[in-house]
Amino acid sequence: MSEDQQPLTEDRHAPASAPPDTTPPLLTAEGLHVAFPGRQGAPTARAVDGVDLDIRPGEIIALVGESGCGKTTLARSLLGLVRPTAGRVSFGGKPLDYSSRALKAYRGRVQLVLQDPSGSLNPRHTVYDAVAEGLRIHGYAGDERAAVAGALSRAGLRPPERFFLSYPHELSGGQRQRVVIAGALVLEPELIVADEPVASLDASVRGEILALLLRLRAELGLSALVVTHDLGLAWNIADRVAVMYLGRIVETGAVEQVLSAPQHPYTQALLSVLPEAPGDPVVLTGEPPDPSRVPTGCRFHVRCQILASGEAERAGIASACRNEDPAVLGGGSGEQVACHWARAKVPG
């Protein structure tokens, strides 16, 4: 097992690995909304419905939530692939410019890693061509062969020349994902957005890819937004976690704080189904979220186990849960929760 394939260890959050809280954000989303008009008069789907989020240099953030909560739409809007209906995305302190030339330059600094390496790679292209594609699109004027070899090597495919003429079907799933990562690294980006980066991989390979992402952060100072429904993955890789529900971030903070002592009932429900979680799994009531029918008040209240059990009524906040929308959480690194019940428990 090579150095980049070592399993994850418990010191993944060593103080030197995460940026200090005073570091200015690399990427910022402010009041971000993305809505999609319904067909034939159907209601508008509010896929992203008010999000503030900061990502600092060298920081790994896990964006977690169940399918349909808006994670991928938020990620695509941060990449400039979906233009927000309202709000803005800023990179390096400057608002994102949606002109073709500006977006091309931006995507050289912010790269996407998709969950399915087989679908991301053209089966007719060799590994060399797959990795070199970004260089050719961006008019790279340096030594292409050296850049491709360096990217493959950093992604853990060594010696890189051995893989140049290979085709995707000749590689394992883990090797294909490393090729996808190399294709993102070849342009030397400052931030990668990884959408379910290990969801399609065998359990034996997942740890290798996560360890690779951590090593790239340590060696290159790379920032990452990792989109996932897997809280175990978030625990293993992230400095900070943002829990998303029905288009909005409902809890955020340091990963140890949020996943060890979750405050929002939705986060508690997500954690309760993990194999190692104490007690019985929380069974949510109501229908799965529908972004075209966001309820009044707290958007989670129709499925909330705290409201369903009568605990919110006893705490005197049931009416607020049904009628008062908690404010959009700030984008910073402090622990925050959009929940009337959780806030009622805080002294003072």
TrEMBL record:
Keyword set, alphabetical order: ATP-binding, Nucleotide-binding, Transport
Domain ABC transporter per the UniProt entry, residue ranges: 27-271
UniProt-listed GO biological process terms: peptide transport; transmembrane transport
InterPro entries noted in UniProt: AAA+_ATPase, ABC_transp_ATP-bind, ABC_transporter-like_ATP-bd, ABC_transporter-like_CS, Oligopep_ABC_C, P-loop_NTPase
SMART domains named in the record: AAA (SM00382)
Region (Disordered): 1-25
GO molecular function list: ATP binding; ATP hydrolysis activity
Cited PROSITE patterns: ABC_TRANSPORTER_1 (PS00211), ABC_TRANSPORTER_2 (PS50893)
Family, as annotated: Belongs to the ABC transporter superfamily.
NCBIfam families for this protein: oligo_HPY
Protein name: Peptide ABC transporter ATP-binding protein
